[in-house]
Design goal:
This protein is mainly α. It has seven helices and no strands. The radius of gyration is 20 Å and the shape is elongated.
Amino acid sequence: MEQEEGILKPTLNYGAMLGTLLIVVSLVFYLLNIKDTTVSSIITYIALAGGVFYAQNHYKLNYTEGFMSYGKALAIGALTCLFAGFISAIYSYVFIKFVDASMIDVAMEQAYSDMQERGMDEEQIDQAMQMSSMFMTPGVMAFFAFIGTALIGFLESLVISIFTKKDNPEELA
């Protein structure tokens, strides 16, 4: 066993692995022409949770003596997702900007048809579309990819940490 050390370097590594996994999942959905569906979201959340569990468990087994507090587990999960979110954001930006810029047009068309189905009149739709177009840029979409990955990962880490923590009985005495 190695001596317990800081969590920054391991979480950078775990975040890189998790970010790569999320990119692979995204590319598989893209290549299979699977649009944003409930199933793709669930699979992405499962991949994120699996990455958090792996990072916490691997850290506990390889960087400590098999013990880890809830707080440390949460920090490892949250930092891992923060770094994975950063990698996902870079990927999202590059993908939307250079690979498939039509994603923005498709999203705008979907928003337009959703508003029509809700019975909004043309003036309301035009105002909403103007507002939406400000947020439909590769940079803003990448930013929200980062925030979304970090936030969902943090929430998942809150729960997963309950199961991966293991208190040291010597410290409790």
